[in-house]
C-alpha cells in the first residue's frame, strides 16, 4: 500500500532548547487508520502541527501526497483536514456558516449539498442555524470535525478528538471515522482513550520523549507484546503457593480460591503443560479455568516504562 505521508529525519528544537522531536521517521499508508499514542509532552501534537504546516521543522523532510510541505505547501495542505485539540471557533457564528466559510478558505467552490451531507453525518443538521456559543462541548467538537471535512480532504488528522466528549458522542464519532475510512480517507488519530486505538486503528505508533519507539500492526502488536493470564478456579482453597510451584509466575487470590499464572505470548513455550503436570503432582485440583489477554493500555504503559 503506498504512503500518503512520508516523514524522514524530522526534528524540532524550540528556542528554549527543548527538543520536541528527535529524527522521526514515519510512513502513513493511504486509506489506513493510524493511531499515534504517547503520554503528555511526548511530541504527538508537535508532529501533527509540522505535517499540517502550523509549526516549522528544525530538520528533516515531510511529504504529503508526494508534495513537500515547504516547497509545495498549498498542494500539501489542501489534502489535509485537521481537528485540533483546542476548540477554536467564533462563538457567534452559525454552524452551517462556519463550515461553509472554512471550505471557501481552501479555494473550493460553494457546495451546499456537501455541507448538508457532512452536517447530517455528524448529527448537526438540526443545529445548523444555531450559534456555536449555544452548543455543548461535544457538539462543538463535531463542528470542528465538520470544518475539517468541508474541503473534502484525503487525509484527516484528529488530535484528541473525543476529549471531553461523553460516551455516546464518542461512539458516534467512531462511526463517522469508520465511514470516512470506507470512503478512502486516511485517518491519523492521537488519543488518550486507548480503547479508541484498540477498536479502530489498523496500525499503532508509540511516541515517547520525541522519538517513535514502535510502529506495528495492531493485531501483531497485541500478539507480540501482549501477556496472558491463566486463572485457575480451585476446588479447595490454598493458604499459600506451594514451594514446588515456586518456579512459576503464580499469584494467589486473597481467599485462596484462584491461582493466576502470567505468561508471555512471545515465548516459544508457555509453560502451561508443565504447570498442569506439577499441579497434578501437588494434588491441586481446579474446577474451571480461563485466560485473559492484556489490553493495549497495559502494553502501552509497559512500553513507555521500558524507555524511561
Mean pLDDT score, rounded? 87
Number of strands: 14
Q: Strand share of the residues?
A: 25-35%
Shape: elongated
SSE class: alpha/beta
* Tally of distinct domains: 2
CATH architecture annotation name of the largest domain = 3-Layer(aba) Sandwich
Number of helical segments? Answer: 10
Instruction: Give the helix proportion (percent range).
Output: 25-40%
Helix-strand sequence: EEEHEEHEHHHEHEHEEHEEEHEH
Low-confidence stretches: none
Radius of gyration: 24 Å
Question: What is the CATH superfamily of the largest domain?
Answer: P-loop containing nucleotide triphosphate hydrolases
Spatial order of the strands forming the largest sheet: 6-7-8-3-9-10
Task: Write down the CATH class of the largest domain.
Answer: Alpha Beta
Amino acid at each position: 500500500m503506498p504512503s500518503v505521508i512520508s516523514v524522514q529525519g524530522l526534528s524540532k528544537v524550540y528556542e528554549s532548547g527543548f527538543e520536541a522531536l528527535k529524527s522521526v521517521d514515519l510512513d502513513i499508508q493511504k486509506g489506513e487508520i493510524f493511531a499515534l499514542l504517547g503520554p503528555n509532552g511526548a511530541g504527538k501534537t508537535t508532529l501533527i502541527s509540522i505535517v499540517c504546516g502550523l509549526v516549522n521543522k528544525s530538520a528533516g523532510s515531510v511529504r504529503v501526497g508526494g508534495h513537500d510541505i515547504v516547497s509545495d505547501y498549498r498542494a500539501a495542505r489542501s489534502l489535509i483536514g485537521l481537528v485540533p485539540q483546542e476548540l477554536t471557533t467564533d462563538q457567534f457564528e452559525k454552524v452551517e456558516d462556519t463550515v461553509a466559510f472554512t471550505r471557501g478558505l481552501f479555494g473550493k467552490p460553494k457546495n451546499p449539498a456537501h455541507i448538508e451531507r457532512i452536517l447530517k453525518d455528524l448529527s448537526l443538521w438540526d443545529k445548523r442555524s444555531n450559534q456555536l456559543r449555544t452548543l455543548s462541548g461535544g457538539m462543538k467538537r463535531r463542528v470542528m470535525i465538520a470544518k475539517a471535512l468541508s474541503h473534502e480532504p484525503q487525509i484527516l488528522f484528529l488530535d484528541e478528538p473525543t476529549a471531553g466528549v461523553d460516551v455516546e458522542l464518542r461512539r458516534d464519532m467512531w462511526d463517522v471515522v469508520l465511514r470516512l475510512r470506507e470512503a478512502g480517507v486516511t485517518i491519523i488519530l492521537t488519543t488518550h482513550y486507548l480503547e479508541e486505538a484498540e477498536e479502530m486503528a489498523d496500525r499503532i505508533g508509540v511516541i515517547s520523549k520525541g522519538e517513535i519507539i514502535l510502529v506495528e500492526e495492531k493485531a501483531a502488536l497485541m500478539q507480540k507484546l501482549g501477556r496472558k493470564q491463566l486463572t485457575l478456579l480451585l476446588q479447595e482453597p490454598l493458604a499459600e503457593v506451594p514451594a514446588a510451584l515456586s518456579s512459576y509466575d503464580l499469584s494467589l487470590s486473597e481467599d485462596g480460591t484462584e491461582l493466576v499464572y502470567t505468561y508471555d505470548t512471545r515465548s516459544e513455550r508457555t509453560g502451561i503443560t508443565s504447570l498442569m503436570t506439577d499441579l497434578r503432582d501437588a494434588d491441586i485440583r481446579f474446577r474451571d479455568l480461563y485466560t485473559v489477554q492484556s489490553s493495549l493500555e497495559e502494553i502501552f504503559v509497559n512500553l513507555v516504562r521500558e524507555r524511561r
